[in-house]
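Below is how a single chain appears once it has passed through the pipeline. First comes the sequence as given, then the structure the pipeline wrote out for it. We keep one example in the README because the format questions we get most often are answered faster by looking than by reading.
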Amino acid sequence: MRFAGKGVIVTGAASGIGRATARAFAAEGARVTVADLDPVGGEETVAQIAAAGGTARFLPVDVASGAQVGEMVAQAVAWMGALDVMHSNVGIDHYQPLVEMSDADIQRVLGVNLAGMIFCAKYALRAMEGRGGAIVLTSSVQGLIGLPHCAVYAATKAGIIGFTRTLSIEAGPRGVRVNAVCPGTIDTPMLAAAMKDLNLEGREQFLESVRGGNPLHRIGTPEEIAATVLFLASDQASYIHGTAVVADGGYVAWKKF
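Resulting structure:
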């Protein structure tokens, strides 16, 4: 019960890593604000937490809007009493050669994946003023290595790592620790969406290539990333600050080798 009595916001909590993290925080005693643009998935996460005996509330938000993030954080603090942990997790992908991407698609990926992280950190820092806390941002191994047709997505994920390092300098004197987690390939709806146009044989070939892309020869689970996030947000990580923790089954090490 590392988070008993704590107030936690998890964005992108309607599915995948965000849902697993929200459930994990609640299981350890936190009051959790489930924030997402998807009300159906968000309420499902809340229902799952309630069924397990936890406490959660859904709040809608488009993290690409600073005004919406500010309002969401204010409502969350009013309900929870305080904000101790912000897990900023929202991310969208758009895998396409840069020359073929529309300007609107580029702006949307940048707005959600990078500006959204900045807005969440900004308003979390304000809410944590005088109290301290922890901010954990979801980046990706694609912020560390290059893959084809992912230029804009990778730019946002690399930007999150740079943002984390630099924000830690501002946040540390305020008693707020800031870290990022860089997941590898994880079994989430985003992964399923990447395979939606493939036939059964094509999906298996794709999954086999992913499984063979790291030394553990398997795909990660949302719960494994949630465990990493909870560690970074907990007092057990009290001297970990301004860094990006890679949780990828050894994918980056494998590629460098």
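The chain has a mean pLDDT of 93.

See the next section for the split statistics.
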